[in-house]
Design a protein that fits this description.
The complex is a heterodimer.
Chain A lengths: L4 H7 L11 E12 L2 E13 L4 E5 L6 H9 L6 E10 L2 E2 L5 H7 L4 E4 L3 H4 L6 H10 L6 H14 L5 H5 L8 H13 L5 E5 L7 H18 L2 E6 L2 H5 L4 E6 L2 E7 H6 L4 H8 L48 E2 L8 E2 L7
Helix pairs in contact in A: 5-6, 6-8, 8-9
Chain B lengths: L1 H29 L3 H4 L6 H10 L6 H13 L13 H36 L4 H15 L2 H15 L12 E3 L2 E3 L4 H34 L2 H8 L4 H30 L2 H6 L5 H10 L3 H29 L11
Antiparallel strand pairs in B: 1-2
Helix pairs in contact in B: 1-13, 5-6, 5-8, 5-10, 5-13, 6-8, 7-8, 8-10, 9-10, 10-13, 12-13
Classes of the chains: A alpha/beta, B mainly alpha.
Chain lengths: ~350, ~325
């Protein structure tokens, strides 16, 4: 496959990224060993993340973006496992870390927010228990101190009357409120990285905007780096510093938000951009990418996108390497033989 | 809460009333107790006298109203056979059955929930599969046969445990109990194991299914993402959620254990209510049968109320104010 994708991405990293990245992922492969065959959910993914940076990870369902997030958290359940590659957080290798040390990192240095706020909070436990346990799992503080900290976190995500809210159960909250609570929990231990897995997808559009704004503000205040996983490029456009487009377990294009949105090189990125309703002229049929995400068990040879791609030809039966995009911008790279100019 | 309790009590009275009518009519249809109670040598005068003494010369609706009137005064009639109050007979035997059923239920819970959790957490492992295979045996082997096998192995062949009776009892608040003496425990173990087997299998299956379902939920993944230890994720997040159906089934099954411990009590000659019922049916001892069934119905009503109260304690989404049947 790729000779050394990281060499490319590091060599051309944007000027804002410091020399030693906060998080460095190199050649990550996460496979699921099912009865039907090996599902290569994450297949040779490499990227770096600087402190305080916001990274957008974009792709359709089944592109491996969520599994990349779970791999970073060490939350891949059997029959899946990280089979290859390295994940380094502040220089510490995570893939070989013993389970107990990984647990200590989870929720402390690395936090995660999930898609459906209706499902992520335990329905039978009070909010205060669900918040303080996240602190007590990592800090040797008393219950009173943990409670005070939980209260503070609720205030920070804009929840009114936090004292009453701490004593409430999840079903007494609206969807947006629950997601705020989930974000407050992720922020409790002031992690280095928060992985947000489509946290606004299940919410009303008005609430989406509020949550996006809040998270961006909070991440900036605390210097927390964000990996924002979404299928919606319009959500990420105003938020991310850099965008990674994933398809069938691989990163097919990466670059600064401006490069990827304004000068997409990969036909798949173009397709994703064209499918955003607001970018389509009124009265015209909404553009969509033909076909479906291929089954990860039976991927076509070569470029996985070629069967849905108008530009594909015989050349695409080989896997394209990660190369510089035609835009010529530093850090803007893609995997395609026939990029858009 | 108070309104809820009052409403539940009123509902219970209706249930008891309907139940008493059904039972009364049913028992009336089974046969005439006089044929069994009076010796065939008795002459017509003696026979008439006995029928009158037992109140059997009255029409059925009259007998029912006499029964109801007395029942309101807390008197469920006198046994035809033992010439003592039916309730007293039942309450004399009740502690033995309650003790047996409680110990059996505790066996099932204490063993079943951890085994079910284990099988749910490691469904593919050899131990998990063995537990599940064993639970099928628990479901399918008939109680009386298992009881006989237990007696054969542990009493006859090995001679470790006694095969019948309650053993030495101690008085606790005036009630004789076996579980406070070693001899009592030796007598309790076999029948309780016998009675527990079905419920043990049920607990294992229920816990395993609940665990497997809960593990797939996002709240478990989120709990793990918070960096909680496995003990806390499983012991608090998973267990609190799966306890809700388990408590319901425990309640229902506990009632069933008390009501239908008859087979085990017969096999192990355990002097409980079940044996009393079988004897009473043989003698067509109407008042005892009716009183027994009403006591059982009351037990079910009380257990169900306790389950509903526990339910609201376990699941914050359940509110007792709403009307439920």
């Amino acid at each position: 496959m790729s000779a050394d994708p990281v060499a490319v991405s590091q060599g051309t990293a944007p000027a804002t990224a410091p020399a030693a990245p906060l998080l460095a992922v190199l050649g990550l492969r996460t496979h699921f060993f099912t009865k039907a065959g090996v599902v290569k959910a994450v297949d040779d993914v490499s990227f770096t993340l600087a402190a305080g940076e916001v990274l957008g990870l974009v792709g359709e369902s089944g592109s491996g973006k969520s599994m990349t997030g779970y791999s970073l958290m060490g939350l891949i359940d059997p029959p899946g496992r990280v089979v290859e590659g390295s994940i380094r957080l502040k220089g510490q290798e995570l893939t070989t870390l013993p389970a107990e040390k990984m647990r200590a990192l989870r929720g402390d240095r690395l936090a995660m927010i999930f898609q459906d706020p209706m499902m992520t909070l335990n329905p039978v436990l009070r909010i205060d228990h669900q918040m303080t346990e996240a602190i007590l799992a990592h800090r040797d503080v008393g219950r009173a101190a943990a409670l005070a900290r939980a209260r503070e976190a609720l205030v920070r995500v804009g929840i009114a009357s936090p004292d009453a809210r701490l004593k409430a159960y999840p079903h007494q909250f609206s969807g947006g409120m629950r997601q705020r609570v989930a974000i407050a929990i992720a922020l409790l231990n002031e992690p280095d990285v928060i992985i947000a897995d489509e946290p606004t997808t299940a919410l009303d559009v008005t609430i989406q905007g509020q949550i996006l704004y809040e998270v961006q503000k909070l991440a900036r205040e605390t210097g927390t780096a964000l990996i924002w996983i979404t299928h919606d490029l319009s959500v990420i456009a105003g938020l991310a510093d850099r965008i990674f487009v994933m398809y069938a377990g691989k990163i097919v294009e990466e670059g600064t938000t401006e490069d990827v949105i304004d000068h997409p090189a990969h036909p798949y990125t173009r397709g994703l951009l064209d499918s955003v309703p607001s970018r389509n002229p009124y009265g015209q049929r909404l553009k969509q990418i033909p076909g479906m995400t291929p089954s990860l068990i039976a991927l076509p040879r070569g470029c996985a996108f070629r069967e849905r791609c108008a530009r594909a030809d015989a050349m695409c039966e080989a896997m394209p390497e990660t190369t510089a995009a035609p835009s010529g911008r530093a850090g803007h790279v893609m995997r395609c033989f026939h990029p858009l100019a | 809460m108070l309104v809820y309790l009052i409403r539940r009590c009123l509902q219970s009275v209706v249930v008891l009333l309907v139940m008493s009518l059904i039972v009364f009519v049913g028992v009336y249809a089974v046969g005439n107790p006089i044929d069994i109670l009076i010796s065939p040598q008795a002459d017509q005068a003696e026979r008439e006298q006995a029928i009158h003494a037992l109140g059997l010369d009255q029409p059925m609706w009259m007998q029912y109203f006499v029964f109801l009137r007395d029942a309101l005064h807390g008197d469920l009639g006198h046994s035809f056979v033992h010439s003592t109050s039916a309730l007293r007979l039942i309450f004399e035997r009740m502690p033995a059955t309650l003790e047996l059923a409680t110990v059996a239920m505790l066996f099932a819970i204490i063993l079943g929930i951890p085994l079910g959790l284990w099988a749910g957490l490691k469904p593919e492992s050899a131990s998990g599969r063995t537990i599940m295979a064993g639970s099928i045996l628990g479901f399918s082997l008939p109680t009386f046969w298992v009881g006989l096998m237990l007696i054969m192995v542990f009493s006859v062949m090995l001679g470790w445990l006694p095969s019948n009776g309650r053993g030495e009892t101690v008085s606790l608040f005036g009630i004789p109990v076996s579980f406070l003496t070693l001899d009592g425990w030796r007598h309790l173990v076999l029948p309780a194991t016998n009675l527990a087997l079905f419920n043990l299998a049920l607990m294992i299956r229920l816990t395993r299914a609940g665990t497997r379902e809960a593990l797939l939920q996002d709240y478990v993944k989120f709990a793990r993402a918070k960096g909680l230890s496995n003990v806390r994720v499983i012991g608090v997040h998973v267990l609190r959620n799966i306890l809700i159906p388990i408590v319901t089934v425990i309640g229902l099954q506990f009632g069933a254990l008390i009501a239908f411990a008859i087979v085990t009590e017969s096999v192990f000659a355990w002097p409980g209510m079940g044996k009393l019922l079988v004897d009473s049916i043989n003698f067509l001892d109407r008042p005892v049968i009716v009183a027994y069934l009403l006591v059982i119905v009351t037990l079910f009503i009380v257990i169900n109320l306790i389950v509903d109260l526990l339910y609201s304690a376990l699941d914050p989404r359940v509110r007792l104010g709403e009307s439920r049947s």
